[in-house]
Amino acid sequence: MSEFGDAAxxxxxxxxLENVLRDVGAARYHNRHPFHHQMTSGAxxxxxxxxxxxxxxxxxxxxxxxxxxxxxxSDDPAFRAEWRKRIEDHDGGDGWSGGIARWLKLATGxxxxxxxxxxxxxxxxxxxxxxxxxxxxxxxRTMLEAVASSLTExxxxxxxxxxxxxxxxxxxxxxxxILAYFDKRPAxxxxxxxxxxxxxxxxxxxxxxxxxVIDALVFKCDVLWAMLDALxxxxxxxGNIPPGAFVPEAI
Length: 251
Prior knowledge:
Elements: H1 14-28, H2 34-41, H3 46-72, H4 77-91, H5 99-109, H6 114-119, H7 125-140, H8 143-149, H9 156-170, H10 181-203, H11 207-235
Helix pairs in contact: 1-11, 2-9, 3-4, 3-5, 3-7, 3-11, 7-8, 7-11, 8-11, 9-10
EC number: 1.3.3.11
Keywords: Oxidoreductase, PQQ biosynthesis
Protein name: Pyrroloquinoline-quinone synthase
């Protein structure tokens, strides 16, 4: 059992529940991962950066699908209207003018072929399983758990604030234009996490539900952590790249 596995015993006030959720992020969000620290210290090769962008695309591309699964389960038109903004943010008005397209621009700006990235054929098995687990979770668990799993967005502005300045300062082939995906994300993440947190505070009204949302956030942190674990294992010093996965020109 994790350190948060019994955090809601006896029931929590809304303020106490929010504190626990923020403690989960402080302890388990992936800005604590060694791969992230390597990135922000300037220690990654261009090949490792390409591998990160390629694998992260597989995560970005599934976000509208998991959000559609959440919308499908809601009978509240106001909730659906608010949550639909997330799909519009990632897909844009025509499917290719939103966040996913901006992430593709990041990947191609690092020298990757757009068709190869979009195919997702060369992502790591660990990435594929983590992303699939997240989509399955949001499809099959309770709606409250699915909403709570999105609360990693509470911490997204922190990691972006660490990542973007470091990438611009320490990698001479990275420009602000390449990183345009991140321009809008802090504001959008704050908007979305405020809504999701208010939903969780309203609907997690007993100890069992409170524990379920804590566990949901732990799960989502594990998904993001596992993706960086897979990158570190495949593209680290030992070079354990699985068969069929992306092979950089230089690691």
